[in-house]
């Protein structure tokens, strides 16, 4: 039961989301993907490049996909009787994410019949900062993550991967609250940053990996590693700092 | 980009110039022009729509923004289903031009238009669209400029596709579009003061009233005219081009430009999200101009950028100290490509060139790479030392222009008071020997 936090600052860390999605699908885990940023076909096409087929996974029942863009149009223009996962779009003040949590819990519930069950359930969220833009408060988002962690990580022994944008110098206080709160709860933090010196064609950015133990007091230092990366069409190549093939 | 590599041969239509990006290391697939591509996986047979072409990189359907130079910087064009956000320049002089180019391109290609504005009547906006340029006029413009030494020949890099079915067109900003073209086209207008008066029953949901009405209007048009595929008996598929002007300004009823802590600060972001949802599920492309320089809360600008697909910022030199800077005297402003979406792909076509400037010539709007060979450092050097070295600065720019095409940059040794190496062209002008 681990919570992995993906954080990107001044660059796009979505390649990590694609990686984790294909990784868990290939590992035969049951995945619930709350995709708020892009459409299903985008993830599908990239997934095919990485070797998984999202349509087939969805048909098999291995993948439960909540497509935020399509669902938002649905909930905005038509009134629903039962609460929709994105119900907060219709609410005037800071909504709560309880319907969304119910959706996740329903999706990852272990199936009762003794069929070949999938391995540990996984919840992927892309991305949480968007919920702040849609009117949900930072505290509500943290509550949602807490509930999901209690259900997915502790009760169902699964994993969670969430993506948050780091606004950097844009002084987004709510985002900072969210990011700090999640950093303290997570077991693994993957932070992608743009290079400090600016744009480079051969090195797209830097990835900092930080392993944490949030439950134990920090008697030992957390391990951290830094790599630089370049994204290619179907993969990402990592190398140590300064060791880019373009430089050597 | 492969699209750029193919047009190295055609010089005829290069009325505007843009820096060529280096050849893509992904594919060497070269195409002569827009053609139905059946080789890309996942490309539907939608290429029969006029004015669109599939992207070479990811098979996404693209439309032209009306400026072939901008198309090239954005990776071939604007993808259908995405939002192009233009951050307005300070006095809103150049962003309406880009807006009008986009709409004019729609009329020429026969797309349906939806124009929304809170300031001007859409019918008036359509009257002011620029007239399209024919091929031979373009060539004449280019030849004039080259022979008059207005732009050094080495600075001209190849530009948009030279194709017979005309993906991007050039426009004459000084002439108006012929009336019969407007009448032959199909367009819908949303003028906020007209629509806001009618009563509309809607539950309160923290979007300002204007935004709600606009979303319903757009959704109505998309549904009724079948842009989302809901009317299968429609024989000819078409693109809907949506243009929203000055979104976020107080005229729309939004107060994010007035105060820092506003009541419904999520109104604009929610609007953008639902709009993007509408666009993704239909054959439409949207251009939005937004006065981001007026938004007081920086966090909102960051959120709006994250919510839009392509973001282009315009910064004009009018009124700033750069207007008199001899470095920038050829240009009217800077253009920043802030964000390009990664659609159906892990990577996107980011251009290598980051400092781009635009100018509005007598008839054409051009985007050029700045006349500097080295990077940002030299430019900052020049700006800080300007007051001390004003006389030298003039000398510098002449020498620098003479050095065009050479590898080294003479400013460094002049400013740093280093001795001249001897093979520099500044021998005539520099005083450090």
TrEMBL record, chain A:
Pfam families: ELP6. It comes from Daubentonia madagascariensis. GO terms for cellular component: cytoplasm; nucleus. Pathway: tRNA modification; 5-methoxycarbonylmethyl-2-thiouridine-tRNA biosynthesis. Component of the elongator complex which consists of ELP1, ELP2, ELP3, ELP4, ELP5 and ELP6. Component of the elongator complex which is required for multiple tRNA modifications, including mcm5U (5-methoxycarbonylmethyl uridine), mcm5s2U (5-methoxycarbonylmethyl-2-thiouridine), and ncm5U (5-carbamoylmethyl uridine). The elongator complex catalyzes formation of carboxymethyluridine in the wobble base at position 34 in tRNAs. Involved in cell migration. GO terms for biological process: tRNA processing. It is found in: Cytoplasm; Nucleus. Belongs to the ELP6 family. Its main location: cytoplasm. This is Elongator complex protein 6. InterPro entries: ELP6, P-loop_NTPase. Keywords: Cytoplasm, Nucleus, tRNA processing.
Automatic annotation (TrEMBL), chain B:
Gene3D superfamilies: P-loop containing nucleotide triphosphate hydrolases (3.40.50.300). Pathway: tRNA modification; 5-methoxycarbonylmethyl-2-thiouridine-tRNA biosynthesis. Keywords: Cytoplasm, Nucleus, tRNA processing. One of its GO terms (biological process) is tRNA processing. It comes from the Eukaryota. The keyword Lyase does not apply. Residues 25-44 are annotated as: Disordered. The keyword tRNA processing applies. It is found in: Cytoplasm; Nucleus. GO terms for cellular component: cytoplasm; nucleus. Its main location: cytoplasm. Component of the elongator complex which consists of ELP1, ELP2, ELP3, ELP4, ELP5 and ELP6. Belongs to the ELP4 family. Component of the elongator complex which is required for multiple tRNA modifications, including mcm5U (5-methoxycarbonylmethyl uridine), mcm5s2U (5-methoxycarbonylmethyl-2-thiouridine), and ncm5U (5-carbamoylmethyl uridine). The elongator complex catalyzes the formation of carboxymethyluridine in the wobble base at position 34 in tRNAs. This is Elongator complex protein 4.
């Amino acid at each position: 039961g681990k919570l992995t936090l993906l954080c990107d600052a001044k660059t796009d860390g979505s390649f990590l989301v694609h990686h984790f999605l294909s990784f868990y699908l290939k590992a035969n885990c049951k995945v619930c993907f709350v995709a708020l940023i892009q459409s299903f076909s985008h993830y599908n096409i990239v997934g095919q490049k990485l070797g998984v087929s999202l349509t087939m996974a969805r048909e098999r029942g291995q993948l439960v996909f909540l497509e935020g863009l399509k669902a938002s149009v649905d909930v905005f223009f038509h009134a629903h009787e039962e609460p929709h996962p994105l119900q907060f779009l219709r609410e005037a003040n800071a909504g709560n994410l309880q319907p969304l949590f119910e959706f996740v819990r329903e999706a990852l519930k272990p199936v009762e019949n003794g069929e070949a069950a999938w391995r540990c359930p996984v919840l992927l969220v892309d991305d949480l900062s968007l919920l702040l833009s849609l009117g949900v408060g930072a505290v509500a988002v943290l509550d949602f993550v807490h509930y999901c962690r209690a259900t997915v990580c502790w009760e169902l022994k699964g994993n969670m991967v969430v993506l948050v944008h780091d606004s950097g110098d844009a002084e987004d206080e709510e985002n900072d609250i969210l990011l700090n709160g999640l950093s303290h709860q997570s077991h693994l933090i993957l932070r992608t940053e743009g290079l400090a010196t600016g744009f480079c064609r051969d090195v797209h950015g830097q990835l900092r990996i930080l392993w944490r133990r949030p439950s134990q007091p920090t008697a030992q230092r957390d391990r951290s590693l830094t790599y630089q990366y370049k994204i290619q069409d179907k993969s990402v190549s990592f190398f140590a700092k300064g060791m880019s093939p373009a430089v050597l | 980009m492969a699209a750029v590599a193919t047009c190295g041969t055609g010089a005829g239509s290069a009325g505007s110039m843009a820096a060529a990006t280096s050849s893509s290391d992904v594919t060497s697939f070269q195409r002569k022009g827009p053609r139905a591509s059946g080789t890309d996986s996942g490309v539907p047979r939608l290429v029969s729509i006029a004015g669109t072409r599939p992207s070479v990189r990811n098979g996404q359907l693209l439309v032209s923004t009306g400026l072939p130079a901008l198309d090239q910087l954005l990776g071939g064009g604007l993808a259908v289903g995405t939002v192009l956000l233009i951050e307005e320049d300070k006095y809103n002089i150049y962003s309406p031009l880009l807006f009008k180019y986009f709409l004019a391109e729609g009329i020429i290609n026969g797309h349906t238009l939806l124009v929304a504005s809170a300031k001007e009547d859409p019918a008036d906006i359509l009257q002011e669209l620029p007239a399209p340029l024919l091929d031979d006029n373009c060539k004449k413009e280019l030849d004039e400029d080259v022979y008059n030494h207005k732009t050094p020949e080495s600075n001209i890099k190849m530009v948009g596709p030279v194709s017979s079915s005309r993906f991007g067109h050039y426009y004459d900003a000084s002439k108006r579009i012929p009336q019969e073209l407007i009448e032959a086209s199909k367009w819908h207008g949303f003028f906020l003061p007209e629509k806001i008066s009618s009563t509309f029953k809607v539950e309160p949901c923290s979007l300002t009233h204007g935004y709600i009405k606009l979303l319903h209007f757009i959704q109505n048009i998309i549904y009724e005219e079948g842009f989302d595929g809901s009317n299968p008996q429609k024989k000819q598929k078409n693109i809907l081009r949506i243009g929203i002007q000055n979104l976020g300004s107080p005229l729309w009823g939004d107060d994010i430009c007035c105060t820092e802590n506003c009541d419904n600060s999520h109104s604009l972001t929610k609007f953008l999200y639902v709009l993007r949802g509408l666009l993704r599920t239909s054959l439409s492309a949207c251009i939005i101009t937004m006065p981001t320089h007026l938004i007081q809360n920086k966090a909102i600008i960051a959120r709006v950028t994250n919510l839009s697909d392509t973001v282009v910022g315009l910064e004009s030199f009018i009124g700033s100290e750069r207007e008199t800077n001899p470095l920038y005297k050829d240009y009217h402003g800077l253009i920043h490509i802030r964000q390009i979406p990664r659609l159906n792909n892990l990577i996107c076509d980011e251009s290598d060139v980051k400092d781009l400037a635009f100018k509005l010539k007598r008839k054409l709007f051009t985007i050029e790479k700045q006349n500097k060979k080295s990077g940002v450092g030299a430019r900052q050097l020049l700006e800080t030392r300007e007051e001390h070295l004003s006389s030298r600065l003039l000398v510098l720019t002449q020498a620098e222009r003479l050095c065009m095409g050479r590898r080294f940059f003479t400013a460094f040794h002049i400013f740093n008071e280093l001795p001249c190496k001897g093979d520099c062209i500044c021998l005539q002008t520099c005083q450090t020997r």
